[in-house]
Specification:
Length: 116
């Protein structure tokens, strides 16, 4: 099945649709899931990015892809959104790993503020 984020964007923020989408994504390869979520997280619309973060929490498992998303959150994402990204990634990676990566990228202030 070919999943396209553009097909789901108008339907996102509907719990039933997001639950069904998460079930479908879990049946796909990690690469397919990652591409789908990438389309959501790079959207210009905040509600679409937030839906992407919700799905990221639910369907991605590859540590390398999660670390890549963490790097993006710390180095490219607007500071006002960092808390949402950390809320999605920290349970998957662990507080210690998130703080260590923040130190590595010299972005400790962003993480310390949100992860007391």
């Amino acid at each position: 099945m070919k999943l396209s984020a553009n097909d789901y964007i108008p339907k996102l923020r509907n719990t039933q649709i997001e639950n069904e989408l998460a079930r479908q994504l879990r049946q796909e390869s990690e690469e397919t899931r990652e591409k789908f979520i990438d389309e959501l997280l790079t959207s210009f619309q905040l509600p679409v990015r937030l839906a992407g973060l919700d799905l990221l929490k639910r369907v991605l498992t590859d540590k390398n892809s999660l670390l890549r998303w963490l790097e993006m959150a710390l180095t490219q994402v607007d500071i006002s959104e960092v808390k949402y990204w950390l809320a999605a990634l920290t349970p998957k990676l662990g507080n210690k790993q998130v703080r260590a990566m923040a130190r590595q990228w010299h972005e400790e202030d962003k993480v310390s503020y949100w992860l007391h």
